[in-house]
Amino acid sequence: MNRYSQMVSGQRESYRLKEYLKLMLPGISSGAISNALRQRDILINGERVRDDVVLHSGDMLDVFTSFERKLPQVVFVDDNILIVNKPAELSSVSVLKDEFSVATWAQSQYPNEDVRVCHRLDYLTGGLLILARTQAVHEQVIAAFRNHWVNKEYVCLVVGSPYPLKRTCDAYLVKNAKTARVFVCPDERRGAKPIRTTYEVVKAGAVSRVKVTPHTGRTHQIRAHMAYLGFPLLGDDQYGNREANKGYKARCLNLSATKLSFQCEGTLSYLNEKAFSLEAPF
Questions:
Q1: Which CATH architecture has domain 73-150?
Q2: pLDDT tens, 29-58?
Q3: C-alpha–C-alpha distance, residues 223 and 110, integer Å
């Protein structure tokens, strides 16, 4: 049994308990919350509750549950940067106050430092993520991304068998901020930004394992671009094939950032001698 404790200090004056628990414990299921309520394993200001009550700023929340909060795993650390393996279903940075994320985890691990996330992985995407341990290094890593000195590679499972087996594809991507979705189009139009993606089939089949390198870093680029090419990612209900996802019993997005390498100049050039990789969990 795990215990998680947190004082409510969110952006609003009040939250429903179940709503707040989804911020505090990303990935926890509704069933796990209901079970904790049924067992009276949730305490507010020391009092056990069994209903989806209202929480207010300043309330102390204690939760006893078998649910294991997903935590980043450190892959590399030195005086300048921290590279972690971000679990899927964990935000890179907190969108809402009191939301647990890689950024809040890093702040708790290095309370006397200004640790900052240098780039983002989607909530549903796991894999390698770079954090800087000072503001100066953060600015240098951001500049390295801007100059294309950081190389990222992903592994995914897609529905279908892409052909040719290796290809670099150009298109345009339009983002709809209201719906938090993007769509890919073949030509330039208002609001569209160019994208370039290289894929390489590792193992072909009805479901294929594919390596992907995004040369541009647009929102949902890999997911949307592969779907546009006719090979949606397995487990992607937003851009993919829901029937195929059900048929293959895919309950999560099969996309992971598996490799990082550097071609930097200046202070961070020592990273050019290193390469970081991990195995995709699917």
A1: 2-Layer Sandwich (3.30)
A2: 999 999 999 999 999 999 999 999 999 999
A3: 33
Three-class DSSP category at 175: strand
Query: Is domain 2-65 classified as CATH 3.40.50.300?
Result: no
Which residues are tagged catalytic?
A: 122
Percentage of the chain exceeding pLDDT 70: 100
pLDDT at 125: 98
Q: Extract the tokens encoding 184.
A: 């890919």
pLDDT in tens, 192-201: 999 999 999 9
Q: How many CB atoms lie within 10 A of CB 272?
A: 13
Structure tokens at 147: 């100059």
Question: Distance between CA 134 and CA 211 in Å, rounded?
Answer: 32
Question: In CATH, which of 1.10.10.10, 3.30.2350.10, 3.30.450.40, 3.40.50.720 is domain 153-256?
Answer: 3.30.2350.10
pLDDT at 282 over 90: yes
276 φ/ψ angles, rounded to the nearest 5 degrees? -125, 135
Alpha helices in the chain (DSSP H): 17-24, 30-38, 102-109, 135-146, 221-228, 242-247
